[in-house]
Each structure stands twice: as C-alpha cells, then as structure tokens.
Amino acid sequence: MSGIRELTLTSSPPGPSCEVHHNVPALVFAAGGYTGNFFHDFNDGIIPLFITIHSVFSENQEFVLVISKARDWWVRKYADLLQTFSKHPIINLDNDSSAHCFTSATIGLVSHGFMTINPKLLPNSQTLTHFRSFLDRAYGRHRGENHATTVNSLKRRPRLVLMSRSGGVGRVILNQIQVKRIAEKIGFDVTIFEPTANTPLWQAYAVINSSHAMVGVHGAALTHSLFLRPGSVFMQVVPLGNEWVAEYCFGNSGRAMGLEYMEYRIEVEESSLVDKYDKNSLMLKDPIAFQGKKWSNDIMSIYLKEQNVRLDLARFREYLKNAYKKAKKFVDKEG
C-alpha cells in the first residue's frame, strides 16, 4: 500500500473554481502497488477495473478515467485496453494540476478475489468469459498486423505455446529443449514464447489467441492464459510448494473461462531443490505442512525463486499426449 497515493475526500470548504468541466462521471483509481508484475497488473488493476465499470455504470455510459501513478510505460502498455474502456483522454492525477469538475465520481476499484469475476455480484451477470470478449475487442483490431499468425492458422496441427522463463527468476524448465522435441513428436507445432516488459500486448495476444494449447510453469506469465480461446488447452506445471497459489491464480480462472485446464504437479525428484536440501526434509516431502499458515518472504523465496524444474520426460509425455487429444478436438471444431 506504500505505492498507493492516499486521496482525501472533503465536503467543505468549497474547492478551487472549476478550470475543466466534464459532463460525464469520473472513475478514480490507482495504478500503483504491485503494478509492473504482469499478474498483478491484471489481478489488482485491469480485472477490478472491468468489475467496477460494470458495477457502477450502465451499458454505453461514458466516463473519464482519473488515474494515480499512471506512469508513461504503463499507459503505453495498456493503451488498447484503456481506450476500449473509455474513449475520453486519461487524466493523470500526478501531473495534472488543473481543477476538474465532473457530474459525479466513483473512487477506487472493486475486486472479487484472485483472478475472478463473480457474476452474482454484477447487474448483468458478467463473467471471466465476458472479460475475455472485452480483451478480444481491444486486441482483435490488430489481427491483420501479424502475417505469420494468418499463415500458421492454415495448418491443421495443433499449435502449442510453451511459456519460457530464463535467468535467475526461478521456476525455469531446465530441459525445455527436450520437452519441445517431445511435444513436436506427439504432433504439436511448438512456439517457445518468453514475454518481456517490452513485448507489445497485441503481439502476445496474436500468438496465444491463435494457438490451441499453452503450457508453462506457474508464474506471472501464465496470466497470458486470459488470451486463450475458450475450449483450448491450458496446462500449468506446478512446482513444489506452489499448489495452493497455482490453483488460486490460474486454476480457477482457467476453468471459469471454459479452458481445458490441466495440472502437472512435479514430484520431488523433478525439483532443483533436491540439489540443495535433504529430499526427506519436510520442506520437500510436505511443503504445505512446512509452510503452515504463513506465506512469508523466506518461504516464497525458496519455492518461487530458488526452485527450477527438470521434468520427468516419460511422465510428462503422457500429459502432453492427453493435451494433444484435447487440442486436436479443438482444432477440428474451431480451426
């Protein structure tokens, strides 16, 4: 919360005279906090923004987004989404000193929990599937800009996106090349995709929206599963100690979006932690008991940052075969 600007609401005395008049309401919120992490950009920002808009405003009602901590890179990265939410120019609270007057204002955003939309709490019963349609309106306009996607769409082999991680971030697939080869032998066309902070979201959307399956280790990049078409396959590789967070962050949302959600939970021997800790320790044999009720920074560092995975290729092959069957059905049905 230290990254969130605090606003003070007053009823008197009167403020300065209006310098800019708006004949529509304002929606005021912060783009601070954990913004910059792709998961939190959506979980803490974009999805709550979608929920709030559908909670407060009627369909086609106009409004102005008034944003605190709207850094230039953030506005550029999410420009397509922000412009789809509202056609009016954004007002940046941190560098606009004018006195703006609105017909009314809503302060703050509503969240329904981790990566979720509860239709019972919205007037028109919107769901994550409706949010997915919103993403398609925002990014679908760019379809003609990716010729490779158009060409690849003519193939009949299911296209699998293998989400990649590298460097010292943890949860890297150490035998990624072998995994790619196995997937190709099974029948997939495989694209290794490692998004960066500079990857345009319309390009990421084009790659993933045109695929039939996505596989990756639990991490922020799996937020791209929101770009998958309903009916496609989403397999989350779950490292040791990531079971509950994997379910909350991506398992529930995958099912809610109508994806063929699959989970591959690694065994102790597939974790790089066995090279550093006793494989008979509680930390590896029973991570849930070891963590207790506290997800501390120290525990998070062990299971998220220290841990890489080396998949059991024989075991993982069976999961890929199952994923291929599901993806092939999707190809035959949706193309």
UniProtKB/TrEMBL annotation:
Location in the cell: Golgi apparatus membrane
Subcellular location, principal: Golgi
All residue ranges annotated as the Glycosyltransferase 61 catalytic domain in the record: 123-234
Regions crossing the membrane: none
Keyword Transferase found: yes
Membrane topology: Single-pass type II membrane protein
Protein name listed in UniProt: Glycosyltransferase 61 catalytic domain-containing protein
Keywords: Glycoprotein, Glycosyltransferase, Transferase
Top-rank taxon: Eukaryota
PANTHER family registered for this protein in UniProt: GLYCOSYLTRANSFERASE
